[in-house]
Amino acid sequence: MKVQSFNRRNGKIGINNKSRVYESIEDLISNRENPTPLVKLNRRINPNKDFPIYMKLERYNPFGSIKDRIAYSMLKNYNFKEGQSILEPSSGNTGIALASLANARGIPIEIAIPSRIPEEKKMLLKLLGVETLWEADDNLCPIFPNEGARGVVNGILGGKGGEKYFNPNQYENDLNVQAHYMSTGPEIWDQTNGEVDYFFAATGTCGTITGVGKYLKEKKPSVKIIGIEPSNSIHNIPGLKKISDLDKDLIPKILDETVIDKIFEVNDDDAYRTGIELARKNGILVGPSTGAILAIALEFAKNHDGLAVIIAPDDALKYISSYAPYINDDKTL
Fold this sequence. Notes:
By secondary structure, the chain is of the alpha/beta class. The chain has helices spanning 67-75, 93-105, 119-127, 148-158, 174-191, 207-219, 268-282, 288-301, 320-327, and strands spanning 38-40, 53-57, 85-89, 109-114, 132-136, 165-166, 196-202, 224-230, 262-266, 307-312.
């Protein structure tokens, strides 16, 4: 596939389209030959022409989020035994991706979720026919290792009949990192023709920031990898986890802290209001985790130059109820 070179003067990357015909829903999951789009934010939201921000829209994966990549990576080579089910804790997106893949393969699945995730995500899991949906009081990113949704799963696995389950365990499974090292990172490198200077991603399971960060640092050591976490451990941004100052046994084991140059905090208000600002100024619908990431990238844009790429893990449609208080507030923007 031929792509034009990135031009710092006009901030443009070549565009290429081709027919999309697939044999299986799994074939839609993004890879280096079939990447998710990279879209430049306009001057209405980012006036600094010397710090172009490109957003990688992961909602274009078939099940609607970046977690499609890791769900496929964790399942594709696993040989299920007869009668075995999938069991996983999730703040929603991984569960939706796993359930979709499980349905396509005819595999039963059970998901443990924090009770505070948006109702839209719960309804999607029910729409997918998840056999059992365990709800637990928890932070929005399941606490590791023995509380909330994680505790529910560990209790089931440790009890009688635990052998009937396959637990992908996204917090410890190296295939989570590998999915981003083999696909998301190379896609960004190709799409920017190696011109990327900054990469912004949130901390959750930490698979994205570790996998992409490792790949980009190997290709271009000067790339800055910027992590975004919630300002408080109790927050309302699904999928994000505050990892600063955590005890070592509470940090996701797949995280490689050596690839991260800096971690910044974002509060709920800034995350949601930035998401709304993006919708109203750029016409891109994103979830609050993207709003959190973008809030930091826009701060960088005030006094930096270089090409920035940020991850948009999913879209706004799973978070309408969460956005509602901000949408109805005349002081949102």
